[in-house]
Amino acid sequence: MTKLERWTAQNIQEGLQTRCLGQHVIVYESVDSTNSAAGNLAQEGAPDGTLVLANEQTAGRGRLGRRWVAPPGTSLLFSLLFRPNSSSLSTKPVKLEARRAQGLTMVCGLGLRAAIRASTGLPAQLKWPNDILLSGCKAGGILSELGMCGPLLDYVIVGVGLNVNLEPEALPAGLAATSISRELGLEVRRIPLLQAALLEIEQRYAALLAGNWPIAEWAAALETIGKRLQVHTAQGVLLGFAEGVDEEGALLLRLDDGQLDRVLVGDVVAA
Fold this sequence. Notes:
Elements: H1 9-13, E1 25-31, H2 34-43, E2 51-57, E3 75-82, H3 102-120, E4 125-127, E5 131-134, E6 137-149, E7 152-163, H4 180-184, H5 190-209, H6 215-221, E8 228-233, E9 236-245, E10 251-255, E11 260-263, E12 267-270
Parallel strand pairs: 1-2
Antiparallel strand pairs: 2-3, 3-7, 4-5, 5-6, 6-7, 8-9, 8-12, 9-10, 10-11
Helix pairs in contact: 3-5, 3-6
């Protein structure tokens, strides 16, 4: 890791163009999980837009209880704390129900995709429900966790793991993974990429708070749509054609018997 890539709040915020995201920063050299740390801060009243990031996670989490692995200093490992009902980006109160929390996962995925494309020229895509793809291989993932106040969201924590200067061979065998540096053939400075992602995410977050739901942009960015899939769910394996997604982000799968199934949680692979 070069001197320019030292994680400090000052380095992260210098040149940052956001109004909310990243204006409060907590930096760890090593932490068990940025999502866990952000959850503790949320309970203590940390503000909307708080950014928690680390060079290393010792117990990083992915979806469905999986472990997220990244050698120290190779990746963007961060969590954002969103408080949509009290955000400084909104001019009026916003009341979001839990079923709408997926919108924050959408804006983070879209912001990351846009930042990768603008910063590197790589045609990053999204895979339902929360993966970032380069050349058809996984380069990143998103994990969202909720805090409730009655029927409304108190906060949402969105955690991101993005392989930047990572050699896929350093990961456990069997993972079809890649990284930005592997695709480009050169190393990438992580801080400018993070700053670009925060700005892209904030723009979409502000639009969401203004009532502009991101489903159309998100659906267009999903490489999953229009493909025949195997979808592995807790109830079993579904086979069908991915026709689209609904307003809450559920996958609309046309099964082989003609029935349209709405899938909220599952892993998808090409059939």
